[in-house]
Amino acid sequence: MTKIRSLTFALILTLFGLVPLANAYADSPSITVSDAFSRPAIKGGSGAVFMVIQNDGTEGDVLLSAKSDVAQTIELHTITMKNDMMQMRSIESVDVPAGQKTAFFPGGMHIMLINLNHALKADEVINLTLNFEKAGEVPVRAQVQNIGHPAN
Ligand SMILES: [Cu+2]
After folding, report:
1. Domain 31-144: top CATH class
2. Distance (Å, rounded) from C-alpha 43 to C-alpha 38?
3. Whether the model pTM is above 0.85
4. Domains of the chain: which residue ranges?
5. Is the pLDDT of residue 18 over 80?
């Protein structure tokens, strides 16, 4: 009986104490982007941008699109295995859950730059803008890196 009473009391405290507080500070995402990079590429060719998107907020968000002056067309892509073949395909959006890191990496999700307006050269910095459903526009600076490309 005492246990039930204290449980009820705790519930009342929660309802009258914490719920109004939660409403006053409405849930929201908090997006930061780090480690953005790209690979060298030729003018008119394709490039890819990789990064880590961190959501330190209390609400999930969704990456809807990306834009940049660097290419004619920019799409969100992922790579999946089909019959032992790596296949690249465009995706509508990318979920960015609260309290999690969402990684774009070679062999996985990437921002696809199609028909580059100019060559991407090592050490150059590309400016992109990510568009999130809730956080809105988030600017990203991606450095062009040679790492992992012995051919370059
Ligand atoms: Cu791609």
Report:
1. mainly beta
2. 14
3. no
4. 31-144
5. no
